[in-house]
Amino acid sequence: MIxxxxxxxxxRAALKKGGDFAELFLQDKxxxxxxxxxxxxxxxxxxxxxxxxxxxxxxLQSVYVHTNDTSPSGLIAAAGKAADAIGDxxxxxDIRLVGSLGANVHAFRQLPMDVSGARRAELLRRAxxxxxxxxxxxxxxxxxxAMSDSEVLIANSEGLFTGDRRVYTRFRVxxxxxxxxxxxxxxxxxxxxxxxxxFETRVDVEQAAIQAGKRAxxxxxxxxxxxxxxxxxxxxxxxxxxxxxxxxxxxxAEAVAFGNSEFAGKLGQQIASPIVTxxxxxxxxxxxxxxxxxxxxxxxxxxVLIENGILKxxxxxxxxxxxxxxxxxxxxxxQDYTFAPTSRMRNTYIxxxxxDEAEIISSCPDGLYAKQMGGGSVNxxxxxxxxxxxxxxxxxxxxxxxxVRGAMLIGRxxxxxxxxxxxxxxMWMAQGMCGAxxxxxxxxxxxxxxxxxxxxxxxx
Amino acid sequence: MEYRQFIEALFQRAKAxxxxxxxxxxxxxxxxxxxxxxxxxxxxxxxDELGLGFRGLYNGKMGYASTQILDEEAIDLLVEGAKSxxxxxxxxxxxxxxxxxxEYAKVDPWSDALxxxxxxxxxxxxxxxxxxxxxxxxxxxxxxxxxxxxxxxxTAIVNTLGLNVHSRGNxxxxxxxxxxxxxxxxxxxxxxxxxxxxxxxxxxxxxKEAADRAIASMLGESVPSGVSRVVLAPEAAADLLETFxxxxxxxxxxxxxxxxxxxxGEQIAASCVTLIDDPHRAGSVSSSAFDGEGVATxxxxxxNSGKLTTLLYNLKTAAKQGVLSTGNATRSYNSSVGIxxxxxxxxxxxxxxxxxxxxxGDGLRITEVQGLHAGxxxxxxxxxxxxxxxxxxxxKQAQPVKQITIAGNFYQLLKDIEAVGGDLKFGMxxxxxxxxxxxxxxxxxxAGK
Lengths: 460, 449
Description:
The complex is a heterodimer of chains A (about 450) and B (about 450).
Chain A: H1 4-14, E1 21-37, E2 40-58, E3 61-67, H2 72-86, E4 98-99, H3 117-132, E5 138-156, E6 160-179, E7 182-188, E8 191-192, H4 198-201, H5 205-220, E9 223-224, E10 228-234, H6 241-248, H7 253-256, E11 278-281, E12 302-307, E13 310-311, H8 318-324, E14 332-333, E15 342-343, E16 347-350, H9 357-362, E17 367-379, E18 384-396, E19 399-405, E20 408-412, H10 413-418, E21 420-423, E22 428-436, E23 439-447, E24 450-458
Parallel strand pairs in A: 4-6, 9-19, 10-17, 16-23
Antiparallel strand pairs in A: 1-2, 1-5, 2-3, 5-6, 6-7, 6-8, 10-24, 11-12, 11-16, 12-13, 14-15, 17-18, 18-19, 18-20, 20-24, 21-24, 22-23
Chain B: H1 3-16, E1 22-37, E2 40-58, E3 61-67, H2 72-88, H3 112-115, H4 119-135, E4 140-159, E5 164-182, E6 185-188, E7 191-195, H5 203-219, E8 226-232, H6 234-244, H7 250-254, E9 275-277, E10 300-304, E11 307-308, H8 315-321, E12 329-330, E13 338-339, E14 343-346, H9 353-360, E15 363-370, H10 372-375, E16 382-393, E17 396-409, H11 410-415, E18 417-420, E19 425-426, E20 433-436, E21 439-447
Parallel strand pairs in B: 8-15, 14-20
Antiparallel strand pairs in B: 1-2, 1-4, 2-3, 4-5, 5-6, 5-7, 8-21, 9-10, 9-14, 10-11, 12-13, 15-16, 16-17, 17-21, 18-21, 19-20
């Protein structure tokens, strides 16, 4: 995107008034979104995101400046703004960048610009028909295909000059069931770090649409969930959002470095039930949360967070790593060039265990079976989390009983981790967008079926 | 290229490519933020950003495309992108562009004095906010975050039918998130301010509110599950309104995504409820004289004494319904046209907070709800949310409460409002800004211990 020499000049300008580290992040991203509602293609938008972010450190202080102007003079001007903010000690550093482009682990075949509008429109029409085929109660279907192709260039004053290309494709469908003066909705949104081949290798849009439709119809007939403390069986896949919210965020260096986490200072300690092993892996080929390098230019890693209940690692970015005296784990991520990166999750999951899924339910005292989770949020300081159950059933006498809606699970991460008494054998993952201080980024959550002996369930 | 010049060249190229009517939506701005930790600058950022969205009618269909660079290559990408997007559209709804109104209200959410505050002064403000927060109570341990930010923005919409409108705005704000610790107990709280004039920067009350919340959060306990009468404090009520404001959108109604479809003129809320959208509210950076399509904005009562008087319309949904746009089109340079309110709030009464608590008698006062993006279903109106607050005994605020959920349904809640307080407060202004006084609600379900 720009020459090594211009990158060197920019970094030199960023450090001319002091500071001990500078970084340039340049991005050029093209995205295209097509959506359908009311049975018609309703919206087609293409866009180009283009700009650069410049970061300078002085010890533990950091300055971030971003701009759309990526001409040599624009970059130097932005670097000058960052330099002015960091200090007034003249500094002349010799910066020599060395190119290091690693291999691409995440093959893509059909680039967004090569997947015709007609082909994307046809996928949406098929999904619309499939969702409506579930029941006459499905009275509205909204679906879309979002594709993007982002090139990034990362250079820093330690000599790094590297880049990555990230191609994302995601399908989303929401079906709305109407009956008895009420509306209920069911959604699916599978995606991957790949191009249009997603629809040949991983995602059947009709099957996803039918699943969404069935969920909406089931929930239309569901009674409100009873409220109280009860055992909860959480199914695999998106159920992993419980770990993401209840523990994952509290293991990010952004929280830990400042002691703003209930897990700060607990490396090597038992923080979870001994049957729990949890991993954050940015290297899984073509997974939604993977990349070749993180947004600070470090190779991504497979990181064991918790092994048999013992806390092994935090997720660390460069700046918080300085504060903690720990090396980066390739976890520095950002939405785009308008955000400074920080430590974030990638593909985060509870690893497969040894319990039989049928036994997990049959041996469960009366409680809740959370088949599909919605999203949630957490306060890392106190560990207090909340997340919504989008498809839930009561468990009665060891069997899955009638559906219930509106269940919300709340609790504290540290408590819930210790109350996991079953971990199933089959782990799978699902896609989400995770929002935090460095913006909204693609992450996978995952787990096998697990059981928690008691959680406060909100309902009415 | 300068944006006016770019737009001129863009329209020429688009006309040559076969577009009939064309429009450009331009926005640009600068943002600043500083985060402090223990009296030192931790993070500092200063940035500029621009975007330009093009839309145009090609064979009667509207195509959209956007860019963040204004160069020769971008003109071709916009024209080609919008053309191929237009060819995909199957929707036959008319997509009118607007020639503009003869008169627009004078709305200028701009303050020169605010703009003259230097980065060094903003850093001082952030340090003072941190120090003030720490000084509120010895149990305030440290701050999870303490920031001061400012932004300056301008918007212009220009089209080939003669529309040519421009606006600008600026705001300076800050927030503080203290952590309270006492032995094993921890709690956290937050508070913010958003100022449109320098005299609205109130660090002391922001620090006090955040610290009070952190202490209450630390001392809070769960309560037994059951059904309770509840006073929703302004922040909690405004958060619920924001989450469910989509039900007032004519677009949602026409697509069967809102249960308010076809109910204009009906009683949908208790008679003490009036809901207003005021695009001209003074002191709000969300205010604007024109909407995302260039239509002159007006103040509307959406609910008047419990009766639904109008939904919120843009040009397309208004044409479909055979009514006039309410001037509630929203858009950004990289999105198509949607619908949103400007400053949306429940009208306050003359009732003091004490009088409202007295009327409650025994129950809960909910000060904060969490989990709105997942625990609220804008389609069904159902919500089940993590909450914090206080017990209310004999009309007086008592023991803090946490680790509970409140659950209900927004449509039902509108009917269950017994009384409205006089303590109207607005939240953080953005594209829209939401406000509410305290609301006394006859029943919500509580899950606790």
